[in-house]
Specification:
This protein is 60% helix and 0% strand. The chain has 332 residues and is an all-alpha fold. The longest helix has 35 residues. The protein is globular and about 60 Å long.
Length: 332
């Protein structure tokens, strides 16, 4: 019988390591920016009438509108149905820029980043939501930067929305470009940044709450983690986005009312009624009562959660398409 002899000089073959599960890959920042901006564009086109109604209610100090339905019917009867889409161009610009800046510079999505990803996903023996600082770090961009970049489009939007009527010869502002030019000429360049302080306060709170809640609902409801290749169905994204967008309007109502009042007042007309964020809060409370600081809350609740549902439904489909075509095809 012949036996095989292994030479003692031959190195032993190392045991092959067990196959490892591929780790989730991150989505590039530019794809997050594209998906968010497309979602914002669709959101603006669908929900602009509710935003017009919200602005009119927040600026109504005489009680001309008795609610959402009365406000909407009054606008459509007196000014025509197209008046419900006033300020669509700056509103779409605002949402597109906002979601682009909000989504793009996520630390965990950048291959150059040395910052560890926040503990927002389930860990062994840990909470699926992670710690509070980690949840806040999940907010991808600075509310201060985003607020100042998008503030100009909001000022133009509100100035256009507060005008009654559609006849160009009777309107002070003929369109978005003419409105911006008129504000600069009459009030100075800084007039385009009126209401920036309450905008920062509102956006910072909304951003931290929305991203934390959206990721939490994706994990708790659908077991979906970022980069795992699972693509949520549109109705699943809409449910997560709707729930994530509900809490913000209640917490930030006073900031939104003050923002609208400061952006709508014309500083070229002499003495202004509101001299700043805190003065506006005190004046509204003294003259109109505490509940006036939450004017327009119902249309905000009607716009923001459905808006988040629409935006996330579009954005998740774009991200899912990218994951299927690029990330997972690269692993094969």
């Amino acid at each position: 019988m012949t036996t095989s002899v292994v030479s003692s000089g031959d190195p032993p073959h190392p045991a092959s390591p067990p196959p490892t599960k591929p780790s989730p890959q991150s989505i590039p920042p530019y794809m997050k920016a594209i998906s968010g901006s497309l979602g914002g564009l669709v959101e603006a086109c669908c929900l602009q009438p509710i935003d017009v109604i919200k602005t009119r209610l927040q600026l109504d100090r005489s009680g001309a509108y008795r609610g959402i339905i009365h406000c909407g019917s009054t606008i459509s009867t007196a000014e025509g149905v197209p008046a419900l889409w006033k300020g669509l161009t700056p509103f779409a610009t605002h949402l597109t820029l906002k979601y682009t800046l909000r989504w793009a510079p996520t630390p965990s999505s950048s291959p150059r980043s040395r910052i560890p990803a926040p503990a927002i996903y389930p860990t062994p023996g840990g909470s699926p939501l992670g710690s509070a600082p980690a949840c806040l770090r999940r907010s991808p961009s600075s509310p201060l930067l985003r607020s100042y970049v998008t503030s100009t489009s909001q000022v133009v939007k509100i100035r256009l929305q507060q005008q009654k009527g559609l006849s160009p010869e009777l309107l002070k502002y003929k369109g978005p470009i003419h409105c911006a030019h008129t504000i600069i000429r009459e009030e100075g360049f800084l007039g385009l940044w009126a209401g920036a302080a309450p905008t920062v306060m509102r956006n910072g709170t909304n951003q931290a709450a929305m991203f934390t809640a959206k990721n939490a609902f994706d994990i708790l409801l659908w077991k979906k983690n970022e980069g795992d290749g699972q693509v949520l169905l549109p109705w699943q994204s809409m449910i997560s986005g709707f729930l994530a967008g509900t809490a913000g309007p209640i917490c930030t109502g006073p900031f939104d009312v003050v923002k609208t009042r400061l952006m709508a007042q014309n500083r070229s007309a002499g003495e202004v009624k509101y001299r700043g964020m805190f003065h506006a809060i005190r004046t509204i409370f003294a003259e109109e009562g505490l509940l006036a600081l939450w004017k327009g809350l119902l249309p905000r609740l009607m716009r923001i959660p459905p808006g988040q549902a629409i935006m996330w439904a579009v954005a998740d489909q774009v991200i899912g398409l990218y994951e299927r075509r690029h990330l997972h095809s690269a692993r094969l």
